[in-house]
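In this supplementary section we document a worked example of the pipeline. Step one takes a protein sequence of length 719 as its only input; no multiple sequence alignment statistics are reported here. Step two produces a three-dimensional model, which step three serialises into structure tokens for compact storage. The input and output of this example are shown verbatim.
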Amino acid sequence: MPASAPAPAPASAPAAAPALAPAPALSPSLASAPEEAQGNGLISPLKSVITMQDEDGISEIELKIEGKVTEETIKEPSILDSSDLARERHISIQRELADLEKLAFVTEGDFDSASSLNALDTGNKQTCPLCPNEKLRACNSHKLRRHLQNLHWKVSVEYEGYRMCICHLPCRPVKPNIIGEQISSKMGAHYHCIICSATITRRTDMLGHIRRHVNKGETKSRYFAASAIKPPNEILKEADTDVQVCPNYSIPQKTDSYFNPKMKLNRQLIFCTLAALAGERSPLECLDAFGATGIMGLQWAKHLGNAVKVTINDLNENSVTLIQENCHLNKLKVVVDNKEKEERDAVLEEGEENLGNIKVTKMDANVLMHLRAFDFIHLDPFGTSVNYLDSAFRNIRNLGIVSVTSTDISSLYAKAQHVARRHYGCNIVRTEYYKELAARIVVAAVARAAARCNKGIEVLFAVALEHFVLVVVRVLRGPTSADETAKKIQYLIHCQWCEERIFQKDGNMVEENPYRQLPCNCHGSMPGKTAIELGPLWSSSLFNTGFLKRMLLQSLHHGLEDIQTLIKTLIFESECTPQSHSSGRPSSVVSKQGKRKGHEIITNLAKKQKADISTEHPPFYYNIHRHSIKGMNMPKLKKFLCYLSQAGFRVSRTHFDPMGVRTDAPLLQFKSILLKYSTPTYTGGQSEGLVQSAPEDTVADRVEVSVNEKAEASNCRRW
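The serialised model returned by step three reads:
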């Protein structure tokens, strides 16, 4: 009877029990290997024996196999390295093709895979260790070798000498499909990650997955030991301030306390700003709303002393702990909830004293700025800062300073225009003056937030560099100041042919032809619409000359040499005069007077601050390479600045662009002077006098003809 055929199998189990006794006992690690293999999706030979024991019983052949597998596993793990015994690799991860073939072919005394157990019943045919029987039936050895090489080995992913072959085993089940009344569950092909044991279907995704592990520093050895041994923190030093940083501190997505060494220039600019403000009044309530490692607040407290009362805030608990450790590392007391934290004060040696107090808080930045009033607030979130502007201006004191650092340069530099429209409500395009455009976008957002709180602003300076946009403003309380600030937010008309630009005129009346406001004549000579409206933008000055001079003195006093060149450029840019014609020359004044009279100089500059505010600098700048004439050699930039100044125009260099020229000259006059002092390429400098002797009208006509030719060529390409 077929139903009673399996009945004798359980009876044979007790009889075979004595034969199992002499088998060597398994160690605890090896005894638990089948359970770990099942949880991790691994194929274990021991697990295969146990499965056969439950279903078909144990025969004499199977007992011999189990004994050989046990001895082989105890003697030498042929596939797994000794360093990976705590965490087995999947059988699809091998070093050489021969190791993969070893799993399939059964030799005397070698049983390394579950597929080799089935080879006893198939004669000379073997099954693939990485494919189920439904996908590939047992075949001859030469056919199986071709299958392993072409299907599994050729499409493998290599990492540190290992090959992650593609696997078709039921490790990653796909969503089942209902076909009629039956449910079919397909098993998708996938890869097993050697580092984190993840299963990934596509090879390109697997390459990117491994690349992300490498970028995070999660190599095989470090990743396995991460749970047991915590990597030590690194100690960095900047401006005589020690700071302890976490591993991967320069990757904001993978660390709680982000520290960017490239933002050193930003931190020094903010320090000089606070030092200049401390010269006006003290003590100052200062807030670093996003502390991370606390490096900025530590520099304030360590170098300015009792002139500032520093509060460092961060919402992340790990960052708060790291800030407290950095405070003790720099001999600064930590004040938490108006109580001195004395848990780690015993770390200081005898005779050492704390240099100051720092209050560390763990709150949301918006909540903290609503609860407390400050004289100085610095916002440096990851990305845009528009979500924190309303809270910053809600409780800022009169004549206080708010500094905003924006690192969302992809949207501000017109690479993601839809993001700029969403965050700043501004329409922008990529122009030659895109960095100054980004600074005016941020200032406009700051001005609108201040006006909502019945406050106005005075822009002290705005800097836009490669990694960030920094805007520093002084707060002026009162609705009158708020109204005056709101009037300085205007739209910009930008010509897309010649890149001429001008702010729209004040007034609410609709103009019949807005193209008349542009100095250029591109709309009359070109078909279609040639201009675009950008904004709203800040239309007033971006620099305060008196405050920048005091910042330069503070940088000289504290020995911050990295930013002195930048501040000097900002001073010349605010005055819109070439460096050779600058009347300020603050560096020579300090060198002659010395450090003793530094306080007197700062006081005199503070008294003359109102007198220093002269005519606002012209908005935006021109790139000399962008407007060069084809076939002509341009003059040197310094000489060209002198030529523009001799022609009666205000001119200076700009920090936004190393080849940019800030001037109040129209674009037509700019090109005319550039052409006048340019030399033809084919004659060198011999025809310079001839070009210079050309009348102004002829030069202007040549420039206009050149512009028209370029526009017509572009128009032809466009159509």
